[in-house]
Design a protein that fits this description.
TIM Barrel; 2 domains; 7-stranded parallel β-sheet; 3-stranded mixed β-sheet; 12 helices
Length: 337
């Protein structure tokens, strides 16, 4: 099993302010932790992790880690080394900006057992990046990705749906560009309007309207289909549940939902099932059907709130789903009786 120990360093080091960004709200942390706090977090998390063979990774999230000075980066990284030496932690993961990647930084990160670098990319459209005040361009992303892989580190890419001025076609083009970079993992986030951001001002003035939840689900589903087809590992869709997104919190507007991934994968599976099952069934008599899917896809295939199973009941007498460890991705076997 894999476990992450997250250490949040909200907005620490980043010289830019994207229109949507307020990392203090996103992470739920107001100040960067000192070393004693880092040790306390690690000890507490390690006490909850049990079992042989568990892989534990320390993850610096929330800010742009490589925007810190080398001295500040070393300050945090050195604190983790004793846990690595004792095999309590197996590696380090950081998130950062693509324009703050260079040989000097990568050499130090490699020395201190950083194994994965996730790049906050958001879009691979230069016009969009300029509009959201991202502070880097697409060429920076390509260059950073190439350098990270050349150092033997795993590459992560984070993108968003619903950015100002972007439609589904533009998001799919970003997905195709991401696929070309061959990352080891990706994350997909919906753009949310948070308090005390430039985006909140745009929303209030009518300059920006966030995606409605159904549209966000469809757009994420379209991207997921591309990634699944190309064996791109999606480790996260949407944001973690937080009191910040409850009524009266920092969320002003936008498609926040704790089950965004399940809802999007429901759409992926619904299209898959309709494409392969209904053309046959519409030309024959009603039957019972058993659909066998991969273990990891079982809930998605049935659908959020059983949406897909209920849909198929319009065409089949009885619909059953079964798990299998032998089936891959979104393939499935069908038995009729």
């Amino acid at each position: 099993m894999h476990f992450n120990i997250p250490i949040f360093i909200p907005h620490l080091g980043c010289p830019f302010q994207c229109v949507f960004c307020n990392q203090k709200y996103i992470s739920g942390v107001q100040n960067a932790p000192d070393i004693e706090e880092v040790h306390a977090i690690i000890r507490q998390k390690l006490s909850t992790i049990g079992g042989q063979g568990a892989r534990v990774e320390l993850a610096f999230f929330g800010g742009s880690f490589t925007c810190l000075s080398l001295e500040e980066q070393r300050y945090y990284l050195e604190a983790i080394q004793p846990y690595i030496a004792e095999n309590k932690i197996n590696g380090i993961r950081i998130s950062t900006r693509p324009d703050f990647i260079d040989d000097e930084r990568l050499q130090m990160l490699k020395k201190f057992q950083v194994q994965t670098i996730e790049l906050g990319v958001q879009s691979l459209n230069d016009s969009t990046l300029k509009k959201i005040c991202r502070g880097h361009n697409v060429a920076d992303v390509r260059n950073a990705a190439k350098m990270i892989k050349s150092y033997g580190m795993a590459l992560g890419i984070q993108t968003m749906v619903g950015l100002p001025g972007e439609d589904s076609a533009m998001e799919l083009e970003t997905a195709r560009e991401v696929i070309a970079l061959q990352p080891d993992c990706v994350r997909i986030y919906p753009l949310l309007v948070l308090r005390d951001t430039k985006l909140e001002q745009w929303h209030a003035s009518g300059k920006y309207t966030p995606l409605a939840l159904p549209e966000a689900v469809e757009r994420v589903a379209a991207i997921l289909e591309k990634y699944i087809e190309n064996d791109i590992h999606v480790i996260k869709v949407g944001l973690h549940p937080s009191d910040e997104y409850a009524p009266g919190g920092k969320l002003v507007a936008g498609p926040f939902h704790t089950s965004l991934r399940e809802m999007a994968m429901t759409k992926v599976w619904k299209r898959n099932l309709i494409q392969h099952l209904l053309p046959v069934q519409k030309n024959g008599s009603r039957k019972d059907i058993t659909i066998t899917v991969a273990d990891s896809q079982y809930n998605y295939a049935i659908g959020y709130k059983s949406e897909n199973k209920d849909y198929l009941k319009q065409y089949f007498n009885r619909v059953r789903f079964r798990r299998s460890s032998e089936i891959q991705k979104i393939q499935f076997d069908v038995d009729y009786c």
